[in-house]
Amino acid sequence: MSIKLTDAAKFFSEELHQIEAWNWLQGTLTAETLDIFAAKYRTKPKPKPKPKPKPSLEAENTWDGVYAAAKQAGAKFPECVSAQWALESGWGKHTSGQNNYFGLKGSGSTVDTKEFINGQWITIKAGFLDFPDLVTCVTYLVDRWYKDYKQYRGVNKAASRNECARLLVQEGYATDPEYSTKLIQIMDRQLQNIGEKDDIDPHVNNFTPWSPFTYKITPNITYGELTLNQEARRFTKQYQCDTAKELCLFLEKVRKQFGNKPLIITSASRPEPINTQVGGAKNSEHTYDAPSKGAIDFYVEGDGIYAVQEWCDRNWPYSVGHGAPKGFVHLGVREGKPRVRWNY
């Protein structure tokens, strides 16, 4: 018969025959073997580190739940992700695919959806991705749109949450030209801080494409007046802002000349395809599509349009379109800054 030494130790009760057995065994072992045994017996091994708990794949289908999931996934502005969830899903009430709260397209569920194409809303059928849960959906969105993904630089590069919303439109996330404006409005309402500090002007009081529409280019002219407060008309290049500011500075002179009466802008930024859609001339100065190219149509409220046109004709060295018969003056500039005059 045989016996395990661990069992012998476990059931040792100091009886005489047990003591004699242990003494006999010890006498058969070499001093080296006993030293090794003593070292192993007296040294308590370090406990193995407990495995880190895996992050939960559960999130509440709420603003705060989406915010937490987006933050965990690595979104710099998780409130923007929550705003997308609110806008795309009606605050969690509707999905485009299984657990797809963001209208993420791909192979999965095919449903009707509205897209803004060629200046109008149309209904089309499109495929939308399916997800096993909300967290996986949020992570997919953050990994591909907020973080850098392949050759694409994510919107985490934004300096503010509002710029983050605008970059989503610029990078083609949605066809709705008012998409970023809607996201910003949702964040303002939800966070109760309209005009939050990094949206006032993240560019040290310089006029840039990402300035808010409330930004005053000059004392009496806002960015929103040039764009009709439409994201689709927002400038995308700094040289466009520089040209617009030059025009606005002259308009301030016009305003002062005519008794500081309100100056009404009827048309300014018209990037393609908007310029074509509204019947603008091909290669119009209103497209601002090259350095030193831009235009503003305007009139002075309560003053004679012909007098305003004549004053601009004498004092503006570049483009003046004689639109007085139609109730406006065209003030513009084009590449090379030539002096140009024409009638409408």
Key phrases:
344 residues; Lysozyme; 5-stranded mixed beta sheet; two-stranded antiparallel sheet; 13 helices; 9 strands
Q: How is this structure best described in words?
A:
With 344 residues, the chain is an alpha+beta fold. The chain has 2 domains: 129 residues, Orthogonal Bundle (Lysozyme), CATH 1.10.530; 141 residues, Muramoyl-pentapeptide Carboxypeptidase, domain 2 (2-Layer Sandwich), CATH 3.30.1380.10. It is 39% helix and 15% strand. It has 13 helices and 9 strands. The strands form 3 sheets. A 5-stranded mixed sheet has the order 5-6-8-7-9. A hairpin with a 2-residue loop joins β1 and β2. α4 crosses α5, α4 packs across α6 and α7 runs antiparallel to α8. The longest helix has 20 residues. The termini are far apart. 31% of the residues are buried. About 3% of the residues have low confidence.
- Number of helical regions: 13
Mean pLDDT across all residues, rounded? 87
Number of domains: 2
Beta-strand content:
5-15%
Oligomeric composition of the shown chains: single chain
Helical content class: 25-40%
Number of strands: 9
CATH T-level fold name of the largest domain: Muramoyl-pentapeptide Carboxypeptidase, domain 2
Radius of gyration: 35 Å
Order of helices and strands: HHHHHEEHHHHEEHHEHEHEEE
Strand order of the largest sheet: 5-6-8-7-9
| CATH secondary-structure class of the largest domain | Alpha Beta
First-last Cα distance? 117 Å
Can you tell me the residue ranges where pLDDT is under 50 for at least 5 consecutive residues?
194-205
Structural class of the secondary elements?
alpha+beta
Shape: elongated
The CATH architecture of the largest domain comes to 2-Layer Sandwich
Largest sheet: 5 strands, mixed
